[in-house]
Write a structure and sequence with these properties.
single chain, 185 residues, alpha+beta, 4-stranded mixed sheet, 6 helices, 4 strands
Length: 185
């Protein structure tokens, strides 16, 4: 499949998945495997952060077998800072409301990934399945890797560890893993 056709397919799939979960996609111009690790990409993401004003950002873990995943992680980390600085000029005003970056649990990004935060998703499994099934790679048309079964099983495993029926897990930067208490709980 040509890069243009693949990009069009991914756009259609994202919009179909969005309609299931009530989300809105914002598309950059980068092709699969060609996300540049440069200042322009960081400013683009910083401006999207300013536009959307999220509280938390979910992105890829920094170590990955997929070049775009590790590049995206680095871009997002820098873009959060850039989005907060008044002196950085983009189309939208500065946004300082980010409380954290959460790194998604992804089989391609598993090196040194340590599940730290778990979120109960027991009641959302049917909606998740409907949304992700909009993607050809989940349905098995692109790769022989059994994505749907892998992530379905992973939600059960993460749920068991978290004491829930189903959960998804995230890692965070090590500096966020410290707790300061005034006394023993």
């Amino acid at each position: 499949m040509s890069p243009a056709a693949y990009g069009a397919q991914k756009r259609r799939e994202a919009l179909a998945a969005d309609s299931v979960i009530g989300a809105e996609s914002i598309f950059a111009t980068y092709k699969d495997g060609e996300v540049p690790n440069n200042e322009a990409a960081r400013l683009y993401v910083a401006d999207v952060i300013r536009q959307v004003k999220p509280t938390y950002i979910i992105t890829h873990w920094r170590k990955s077998i997929h070049k775009d995943h590790s590049t995206t992680s680095a871009i997002v980390q820098d873009a959060v800072l850039l989005a907060s600085l008044e002196g950085v000029v983009t189309a939208h005003p500065a946004h300082r409301g980010i409380r954290g970056i959460w790194y998604a649990d992804n089989w391609e990004d598993s090196e040194d990934f340590q599940p730290y935060i778990s979120v109960d998703v027991s009641d959302e499994v049917a909606q998740w399945r409907e949304a992700v099934s909009k993607y050809e790679f989940i349905r098995g048309g692109i790769s022989s890797f059994r994505y749907l079964e892998y992530y379905d099983a992973l939600s059960i495993v993460r749920g068991a560890v978290a004491g829930k029926m189903r959960a998804i897990s995230f890692d965070i930067d090590s500096f966020g893993k410290r707790r300061v208490l005034d006394s023993m709980p």
